[in-house]
Write a structure and sequence with these properties.
Helices cover 78% and strands 0% of the residues. It is mainly alpha-helical. It has a domain of 109 residues. It is globular. About 4% of the residues have low confidence.
């Protein structure tokens, strides 16, 4: 019941995508309940960012798995996903029936404006533990900074190929700390094969149409969203608008807005695409297919994580990949900022940054406040499109 309640709470208030989910899970599992040590939580963030699929969803499943095994993973994962899924399907019916209400578009524009500040806040909260782990040696700290900068640049510029930069940072650190053990090399090869094989899905042909095509699109969403849920936006647009014509460009933009203003993972946007293709059952099918790989990766591989963490080679890998992940979370603020279309949104972003970083207040209140400012801007006649 505790997992259902706490993970369900995060699923209800987790506005803002992966940065918010990481912050809320860290507050719950590390700071408030002391269920997971800070270093282990950082390793979990790194590990889930290296897996294909929505990283924050996998982090929620993994944290629940660590507490109660398979039942915990299932209950925690579903509790995290279902609140946002129910809400986004209900709103999809409204958005796809015609023009959405002005206040909803304003809330989307306002809450989306704060996304970059939330990303920086999440990275800032993870950085101190990782920096401390680097030690006091000047060379180790220089490498830490290099890995973090590489991750930030990759998140801003490379999109789905971010995972290769994370892998490279970990492998460089293994090379620096090389001691001749085989387990680290075996781990690196396994992750490397996984990272290079999954993107092939993007180019595979789709046979048939209807629900078969929808399931394939959802599978690509669930297995190619390296570096955060926003990576899958252009992928879904190409399929939903240009290839299968399930949605118009305007309807797809509404779907993206829904993915940002509703709680839970941004990958929930795929449910709106599913609704456009096949109604409520299409939305449920798309969500089930998109999230199934996340459960499988954690349930089937979670028992190996602790053994890997005890390896010096694997620890070296995390020493390199960890700061790269933190940099990537911070670097995602750049494309989020560049996506803003209206001048007033930058004012909301600045206010959210002050609220989170200077006043050190909560993520949820920042997003709700930003959404309220967006509604006020829309009602005042300011552009929200």
């Amino acid at each position: 019941m505790t997992i259902a309640r706490e993970w369900g709470r995060i699923g209800c208030i987790g506005f803002g995508g992966p940065p918010t989910h990481i912050s809320l899970l860290r507050q719950l599992c590390v700071e408030r309940r002391d269920w997971i040590p800070a270093e282990e939580f950082e390793d979990s963030v790194t590990a889930t960012n290296l897996l294909p699929g929505p990283a924050s969803t996998q982090l929620a499943i993994l944290a629940a798995w660590r507490l109660r095994g398979l039942p915990g993973a299932l209950v925690g994962g579903l509790s995290f996903i279902l609140p946002g899924l129910a809400l986004i399907l209900a709103l999809a019916a409204l958005f796809l029936s015609g023009n959405p209400p002005l206040w909803v578009r304003g809330a989307a524009a306002g809450a989306g404006s704060a996304g970059a500040a939330v990303a920086v806040h999440a990275a800032w909260s993870l950085a101190p533990v990782s920096w401390k782990r680097a030690g006091k040696a000047r060379s180790a700290r220089a490498r830490w900074l290099g890995y973090a900068l590489a991750g930030a640049a990759a998140a801003a510029l490379t999109g789905p190929w971010l995972v290769l930069v994370l892998l490279a940072a970990g492998l460089v650190e293994i090379a620096v700390r090389a001691s001749g053990r085989r387990d680290g090399r075996r781990f690196a090869r396994r992750i490397g094969r996984r990272a290079t094989s999954w993107p092939v899905l993007a180019a595979a042909p789709v046979l048939g149409g209807g629900m078969t095509a929808l399931a394939w699109v959802a599978l690509k969403v669930g297995t190619l969203s390296y570096g955060g849920g926003f990576v899958i936006i252009p992928l879904m647009q190409a399929d939903a608008v240009d290839h299968y014509h399930w949605m118009t460009d305007g309807q797809f933009l509404n779907a993206v807005a829904l993915g940002q203003i509703t709680p839970g993972p941004v990958v929930q946007t795929v449910a709106v695409v599913g609704y456009a293709a096949g109604g409520v059952w299409g939305g449920l099918l798309a969500a089930a297919v998109a999230f199934a790989p996340s459960f499988l990766f954690v349930i089937l591989g979670g028992r190996h994580f602790d053994g890997l963490r005890s390896s010096e080679r694997v620890q070296a890998f995390f020493y390199g990949a960890g700061p790269a992940v933190i940099g990537a979370i911070a670097g995602s603020a750049i494309p989020l900022s560049l996506a803003l279309r209206n001048g007033w949104q930058y004012g909301v972003l600045a206010a959210a940054a002050l609220w989170l970083l200077a006043a050190r207040r909560g993520v949820v209140s920042a997003l709700l406040g930003a959404g309220a400012l967006g509604v006020a801007a829309a009602l005042a006649g300011w552009p929200v499109g």
